[in-house]
Write a structure and sequence with these properties.
CATH class of the largest domain: Alpha Beta
Number of helices: 12
Shape: globular
Distance between the termini: 47 Å
CATH architecture of the largest domain: 3-Layer(aba) Sandwich
Radius of gyration: 20 Å
Order of helices and strands: EHEHHEHEHHEHEEHEEEHEEHEHH
Strand order of the largest sheet: 3-2-1-4-5-6-11
Strand content: 15-25%
CATH topology of the largest domain: Rossmann fold
Largest sheet: 7 strands, parallel
Length: about 325
Amino acid sequence: MPDKRALVTGITGQDGSFLAELLLEEGYEVHGTVRRVSIEDPARRLWRIRHLLDQVHLHPASLESYASLLQVVEGVKPDECYHLAGQSFVSYSFEDAFSTIDSNVNGTLYLLSAIRERAPHCKAYFAGSSEMFGNAPYSPQNEQTPFNPRSPYGISKVAGFYLARSFREGYGLPVSSGICFNHESERRGYEFVTRKISNGVARIKLGHADRLTLGNLTARRDWGYSPDYVRAMWLMLQMDQPGEYVIATGKSHSVQDFVEAAFRMADLDWQEHVVVDDALFRPAEVEELRGDAAKARKELGWEPSVGFEQLVSIMVAEDLKRVEQTANEYG
């Protein structure tokens, strides 16, 4: 029998899928919450965990429903809970701030309340974001940097962060928060700029497209590899005392840097294919985010293992393979 039982909200997402793999390797019994529609449409909505479906336990639940989360927590009685679910696409949060706030703030409140009521000894993880810093007064940003969010998404994460701290300090719930900077992978959603670039390069290289339309190329982000970051999440919950940690590589690159690297790996000239569309710019842009993970290095022993160039290479190689396979399947 597994020694520990873990509950992962957002198990079907990029981080959730890698975290589920890590937890299984560590001998956990792994449970995950999914939307009911995901169970009804597994081919499209469960593709990231398709290879794990016979090893994990899935429970239909909604972040908008306290009753459903309470039922799952009561049934699972987790030793550890990783709260990764929510609306995570920054640009979309400008289009629908209502659902972003509802999902990310109320969902966090509901889950923490359910844990407090039904599994008060469960160690919990809250997924913060570098977008909480927004237009930070200095760079790199660390755990003491003031928050100055520039999007409904960033605002919702700041609220969730303080909810987690409130439950820790007010109720004694062992909740840790990770302030994770941008982390990508071959499982990233296609709406995110990094995956849009790697997928676009693959389609252009294989003759399925000629142009890639992007927004702001000068914005700079601290990009890491998702499996490295979920390892940091797990390490936080192995500590005797809960805490708050910045998780980042400490290096920033522009969107143009990512574009140039991706096209270079496919032996293409990016300037012949990339079109900038002002309509894709954010209403309120954050020009640079770069993190200082010194605390995580010192207390967790965490270090990123994949650098920027390797990350881009992984994503482009996987998309080249996927686009080619899809083309072969459909003639």
